[in-house]
Design a protein that fits this description.
alpha+beta; six-stranded antiparallel beta sheet; Immunoglobulin-like; 8 helices; elongated; 31% strand
Length: 482
């Protein structure tokens, strides 16, 4: 029998045929033997993970697998008990509560936060009197609050990160003056009580209520609890604000006008314009048998929208016998509107016509025993829109041979502290001389090289001995030539 030779093409065809035959035989054997282990409904192919887990749980209950062997004797379990472990469920991430577009700048870019975050960070700032910023962790699972100050990784990047920032609304709440007058008259060596009160919900720093005279600190006030007497009006009005009363004994050492001022802070160290008070002490006017003073103290409201000018006219009988005053006419600045004058504050009762207040005195109000002092008061409230300088003059008419007494006063209606820098002619002259010297020095140095120094240099040279000799020589030569 002859040999059969396969070509290369025939060999390839033979291999393909044998491969297909092997696949067909294997698939047929699986169909015959595998049906007893897996029905069409048991197939996990195409099932989602949850369905697969349910199928395996059912099989485990049916087979009762234990140590890799079926305990129910169910032959259909086969070797499945060796592979009964269910796949672990994929751990789900907790939902994001915040997030940022990226964290390239260490702070976060275009971050978002849940509702109420701005209110929460502001509440934390107000409670601590420090600035705070809300932060989101990179996983987006937690919002935290951090103190916000220079050096923080988000400082200066608020426009990039969009993180809510809480700025504390902390300031000392207020206080004022106590006593019967806002301005007093004294003499050298005499002591004047400068007293007031302070309050704040956080309490007052009672060890540091500073007293100043013309802007220079001279000491600290003595402080007492305003509610030591629960019936005290200050305690009654500010009982929930931890009120205190302060006082300082000022002894005048120089003549002239002095401005006494007090400033304080709350227990957290915060100050504010509402926590300041001032009173003026002035030299009295003496005429005949009378010592008369006209003054005004300033008190701003907490919001600095208006200032109260508390005017006081003090009259003292310096004679050794009784005297009388028949009339006091106080003419206010023309800028004072009638509505500015607080009628209920006028004491004793007087008449008001336009900007003129008149006391027609009779009885006890007119009579002054030797050394007796009486005061006449009223308050003018100036709104912020009308702040400025206010002048007024009072004319006192004594009974008898004494001539009329005139006293005047100029007060700055403002909530800015007085400096006293230009209150005297000497101060104004000194400042003028100083400015002239500065001008000459600038011209001599000429830092901008404007040429001014050369002009001054030429002038100085011409005035010198050498310059005069040179000038005379030039004039002589001109005469000889001509």
């Amino acid at each position: 029998m002859g040999q059969v030779r396969l070509t290369q093409k025939g060999l390839i065809v033979l291999v393909v045929v044998l491969s297909l035959a092997s696949f067909g035989i294997g698939f047929g054997i699986w169909k015959v033997t595998g049906a007893q282990y897996l029905s069409s409904t048991d197939s996990e192919a195409g099932k989602n993970p949850a369905e697969k887990r349910n199928i395996r749980k059912e099989k485990e209950e049916k087979c009762g697998c234990k140590n890799g062997v079926s305990t129910t004797g169910n032959s259909s379990c086969g070797d499945w008990c060796y592979e009964k472990d269910l796949p672990k469920e994929k751990e789900e991430k907790p939902p994001a509560v915040c997030g940022c577009q990226s964290f390239e700048n260490a702070c976060g870019i275009n971050c978002w936060f849940p509702g109420g975050t701005s209110e929460a960070v502001q509440s934390k700032a107000d409670a601590s009197c420090k600035s705070y910023i809300a932060m989101c962790n990179p996983q987006g699972t937690e919002v935290t609050y951090e103190e916000f100050a220079p050096g923080h990784r988000c400082w200066g990047k608020q426009n990039e990160c969009k993180n809510p920032v809480g700025t504390p609304n902390c300031a000392c709440e207020g206080g004022g003056l106590t006593g019967t007058t806002d301005r007093v008259t004294t003499t050298i060596g005499k002591t004047v009580d400068f007293c007031g009160y302070a309050y704040d919900a956080d309490g007052i720093d009672v060890d540091n209520i500073v007293i100043s005279v013309n802007g220079t600190a001279v000491g600290k006030a003595t402080v007492t609890d305003a509610c030591a007497d629960p019936s005290d009006p200050i305690c009654t009005q500010y009982k929930n604000k931890k009120p205190v009363k302060w006082c300082y004994k000022y002894t005048a050492t120089t003549e002239g006008d002095q401005v006494l001022s007090a400033s304080w802070k709350d227990a957290k160290g915060y100050a504010g314009n509402a926590c300041k008070a001032s009173r003026e002490v002035t030299t009295a006017v003496t005429q005949d048998n009378w010592v008369v003073d006209k003054s005004a103290g300033r008190v701003c409201d907490a919001n600095q929208t208006q200032v109260s000018l508390n005017y006081v006219i003090t009259i003292t009988n310096s004679a050794s016998d009784s005297k009388e005053i028949s009339k006091i006419v106080d003419t206010l600045d023309t800028k004072v509107q009638n509505s500015y004058i607080q009628l209920q504050t006028i004491s004793p009762t007087a008449t008001v016509s336009g900007n003129v207040i008149t006391w027609n005195l009779t009885g006890d109000n007119a009579s002054f025993d030797p050394g007796e002092t009486k005061t006449f008061r009223y308050t003018v409230v100036v709104p912020k829109s009308a702040f400025g300088s206010y002048y007024n003059k009072a004319v006192i008419t004594p009974v008898g041979g004494d001539s009329n007494i005139e006293v005047d006063d100029t007060v700055i209606a403002s909530c800015a502290p007085a400096t006293g820098l230009f209150d005297s002619a000497e101060s104004k002259l000194a400042v003028g001389v100083f400015l002239i010297l500065v001008a000459f020095a600038y011209a001599y140095i000429d830092p901008l090289d404007t040429g001014v120094h050369r002009i001054f240099g030429k002038l100085a040279y011409r005035m010198s001995r050498e310059g005069r000799i040179k000038k005379n020589r030039e004039n002589f030569e001109k005469r000889v030539v001509s």
